[in-house]
Amino acid sequence: MSSRTPYKVLCVCLGNICRSPTAEVVLRHYCDVHNLNIVVDSAGTSNYHPGKAPDLRSQEHALKRGYDLSGLRARQLKLRDFIEFDLILAMDHDNLSDILALQARARYELGQLCAEVALMSEYDPEYPKQAVPDPYYGGAHGFERVLDQCESSSLAWINVFKMQQKRA
Ligand code: 4NP
What is the CATH number of the domain that holds 53? Predict the structure, then answer.
């Protein structure tokens, strides 16, 4: 964990209306529960839905587990995010390669960067290095699966953040 306080994490998917807003709110919830002073935000690799609230299906499924997504608004990942965040979490492998391509551009245009890039599921024992499947064109099961994975992967990240904090 870097010495910067607070540590800043950005969750990233394609549209920033289903998976990454869910990941943002779930990860923030677990950071709060574990008293970790960490800022969590989200963005999309695409600019398909700028300024839009999360998909209503994501909002409804999340609310059933107590997560309120209603105040979030979509935005596209930008070069400065690689300076402003310490950790960027990709929801799937396509997102990961798009993020890494933008990171190479950011390094060329902005110089030294802060952000490490990893999969949301990087340390998840239940879904190791697996994609969070895109629920957009599917049914209710897909949205529940996003929540299951976001909860499981967030808890795995909490353990990593705590270990990093101890070492710092
Ligand atoms: P997300 O889901 O990447 O989890 O936000 C999607 C949302 C919108 C689209 C694709 C995926 N779309 O094609 O508009």
Answer: 3.40.50.2300
